[in-house]
From TrEMBL, chains A, B:
It comes from the Bacteria. One of its GO terms (biological process) is pyrimidine deoxyribonucleotide catabolic process. InterPro entries: 5'(3')-deoxyribonucleotidase, HAD-like_sf, HAD_sf. Belongs to the 5'(3')-deoxyribonucleotidase family. Pfam families: NT5C. SUPFAM superfamilies: HAD-like. One of its GO terms (molecular function) is 5'-nucleotidase activity. The active site is at residues 23, 25. This is 5'(3')-deoxyribonucleotidase. It comes from Mucilaginibacter galii.
Length: 191, 191
């Protein structure tokens, strides 16, 4: 049950590491790729990421509310593609930072187990100690937050990095990051 | 999906409320009652809360590891009795505080949905915005924490209240609370 090394001295060093809260959807899990693929499957039309840019989540496609239906469909979160470069980058960051996966999963109760299974498959090196599923993220306290949603970043007390996503293309008040190698570069510079 | 009143001015007042993180197991959910009842069901012996006092969780009964098996049994968390007075007390606290339910549920993946359903049944007035399931609680940042486990309370930066439980009877470095009316009394005095 408990980590047997939890009270050993070397853990003290871990405790001193700076902490990062990393979001799932749109950050380590590629929501855009999934939505585009499901739309093509259902309507035979292949939209691109450029088409999505700047659109609000509830108005991505001509079919109003479609994305809302998708995210409430069993299997949606379990089968999300991993964001390019995320696995390697998170592994690298864990060498120098205490990394927490923080997902606003409570809105979609079906997603809880799917997200946990997904993490177990793609990020097995992240233990249950460092996984957080929440409603809003206002009581999350880490040194850094990597997220695509300004509703999470705006009230955060630490340093923010906004992962590029279709819905934040016009936002300029957070440090934009475009890909995972860039996250590693920026955070390594903080050491 | 989103709370339609989320950006209205009166929400600003809510935002200024002091925040409380309230644990589930042993605080609003009566683990001791369930464990004693299941033991009596399985072994025909009726132990009391006094018998449990001071014992470690993994050595509560002569049958080593029994509690570990119980908490991994489907239905255990879903059928926990509500701690006496918890519903009324949490409702009262919500008048003056922003209340978050923070449960270290990640260790037991089966418990995620059970805990969410349990909250929906017994605390339907707490919305998904204010529910957090985590591994450890070290990045939880609220003004107050009510918990029975010192592993959660010891590293917490805010004010701590230790809910009385069999495993903390010898602990003296947190404010002990014995029942829910006492929680309300102490926190009302903080206003």
């Amino acid at each position: 049950m408990a980590n047997p090394g939890h009270n050993l001295p070397f853990e003290t060093l871990d405790y001193m590491k700076k902490t990062i809260a990393i979001d799932m959807d749109g950050v380590i899990a590629d929501i855009e790729a999934q939505v585009l693929a499901w739309y093509e499957r259902d309507y035979g039309i292949k939209y691109t990421r450029d088409y999505l840019a700047g659109r609000p989540s509830d108005d991505l496609f001509p079919e109003k509310g479609l994305v809302g239906n998708y995210v409430r469909t069993a299997g949606f979160f379990r089968t999300l593609p991993v964001m390019e470069g995320a696995v390697e980058a998170v592994k690298t960051l864990m060498e120098d930072f205490e990394v927490y996966i923080v997902s606003a999963a409570m809105e979609f109760p079906l997603s809880l187990n799917e997200k946990l299974e997904w993490l177990g498959e793609h990020f097995p090196f992240i233990t249950w100690h460092n996984i957080i599923f929440c409603g809003d993220k206002s009581i999350i306290n880490t040194d850094y937050m990597i997220d695509d949603h300004i509703k999470n970043l705006d009230h955060f007390k630490g340093k923010t990095y906004m992962f590029h996503a279709y819905h934040n293309t016009l936002v300029t008040h957070h440090t934009r990051i475009n890909n995972w190698p860039q996250v590693v570069e920026l955070l390594k510079a903080e050491l």
